[in-house]
Amino acid sequence: MSMPTGVYRAVKKNGSEYYRISITYKGRHISLGSCDDLDTAAGRYEAAAALLKGNKGINEYGSFNTIPYDKFIILINFRDNGVYFHNPVYLHQRYFSYFLDRETELKFDTDDLFFYSQHRIQRRGGHLFVENYGTQMSVHQRYGLHPFSVPGRDFRFKNGDETDYRYENLEIINRYMGVELIENTIPKKYRALIHVRGYYNLGIFDSEEKAAIAFNKARKALKKAGIKKDIPANFIADLSSEEYDEIFENTILPESFLKYVSSVTKD
Questions:
Q1: How far apart are CA 219 and CA 229, in angstroms?
Q2: Given 44, 129, 156, 217, which is the most exposed site by the fewest CB atoms within 10 A?
Q3: Quick one: pLDDT at residue 64?
Q4: Which of 121, 224, 107 is nearest to 157 (CA)?
C-alpha cells in the first residue's frame, strides 16, 4: 500500500507499527512528530502544508489541534520570517514571543533571541526555568534576580502584563534571597529574613548587599548546625572577595537566631 505524502511507516521495539510525519519547506526537512493512526498522520501533513501555503496570522487560526502547538508556532514563524527555530518562537519587529503553551505567550527583547531559540522554557511550581549546561536556571536569574523571586515583592511588571519580560518592562525591587526593601524609608533600608520553622528577622541594613550577606551568614550557620533544608546562597557580583569577607565578618546575627542555631546543634 502506498503511503500518503510525507508519512513514513516505522516499527517500535515491541513490533507494533507507527507513522512518522515530515514536510520539506524552503529546502528544510521538518519533522512533524509521529502518531499511531495513519489517517491522523496524513491529516497532520495536510494541515502543515496548508499552513505553510496560507497567510493567516497566528491568532486567525482559532483552535489549531491537528499539529502540536509548539510545532504550529515553529512552522508559522518559518513561513512568515524565513528563520527556522527548534523552539516555539515567533519574531516581531522589535521583540519576539515564546509560546509556552496555547494560552501563554511570553514576550522578550531581541537581545535574548539567541538564548531562547536554543533553550526550552519549562514551568515548574509556578516558576519559569530553562535547562542550561545540565542544570535548571530560573528565567528570573537572567535579570539579576534570585531563582524564586516573586512578582510584586522582588520585581514588578511596569505595564501590568506578567508575561512581558522585556527589560524596559521590569522594575527590580529586591535582587537577593531573603532581602526585602522597607517601604517609605529615606535613605533606603533593607530587611534580611530567613525561613526555617518560621521567619527569623536578621536585622535592618543600609544596603541590599549587606542584607544579602547577612542572609548568607545565617544560611552558613544553619548548614553548620546540620539543618538539611536546601537554602540557596546569594551571589553578590558587585563586591570584591575582600569587600564581601569584611562585611561577612562584621555582620552580627541577632541573639534570637543564634539561640535557635545553638538549640539545633545540641539536638
A1: 10
A2: 156
A3: 62
A4: 107
